[in-house]
Amino acid sequence: MAANSGWKSSMNLGDGHRMTPQRREVYEVLMENQDHPTATEVFMRVKERMPAISLATVYNCLDTLSGAGFIIQVNVDREPSRYCGNLSPHGHFHCEDCGTILDVRLKEGVQASGTVTLPRGAVAERFEVAVRGHCPECVRKRKPEVTKSS
Predict the structure, then answer these.
(1) 72-to-62, 64, 75, 106 alpha-carbon distances in Å
(2) How far apart, in whole angstroms, are the C-alpha atoms of residue 72 and residue 102?
(3) What is the dihedral of CA 37, 40, 45, 50, to 10 degrees?
(4) Which residue segments constitute the domains of the chain, with CATH numbers given?
(5) Sequence-ordered alpha helix ranges (H) in the chain
């Protein structure tokens, strides 16, 4: 689903940045799949559409789009950053086996930031929910094979 494919190159992203054709392609690649790709994975997908694009340009596009609030940069420990086009309130589930990152919906009406007590005088600017475990596919693979005895 190529969201906002009617955007014009002159569209302003804020801070003086415009929606260039390269930024639009990077954005559309992220919106087509909610699989939280790395910059290199985004580059490989965009390169199919824009063969002349460089990895540096993709990094710059991702930086600009995340800075403008069009996408979210997801960081998992010391792994490469991943990128998410889902701007609705949600968390991320990290599979410890295969490394998959899945979106996790927050319960309706629950404010995630209300689940913690901040130190006196502290002000939260952002609240991120990260859950770790094993994705459904890895759980299925871990189950012992059931053998039928005749």
Answers:
(1) 9, 11, 10, 16
(2) 13
(3) 140
(4) 12-74 (1.10.10.10), 88-142 (3.30.1490)
(5) 21-32, 39-49, 55-67, 136-142
Angle between helices 39-49 and 55-67 (to 10 degrees): 110
What is d(CA 126, CA 69) in angstroms, rounded to the nearest whole number? 13
Return the residue matching tokens 């994705």: 135
HSE value, Cβ hemisphere, 13 Å, CA-based, for 125: 0
How confident is the model over 66-94, as pLDDT tens digits? 999 999 999 888 889 999 999 988 899 99
Token pair of 148 as six digits: 């039928």
- Residues 6+ away with beta carbon under 8 Å from 4: 24, 27, 28
- Dihedral of CA atoms 36, 40, 46, 47 in degrees, nearest 10, equals -160
SS3 for 63? helix
pTM: 0.77
Bridge partner residues of 130 (DSSP)? 92
HSE of 25 in the Cβ direction (CA atoms, 13 Å)?
20
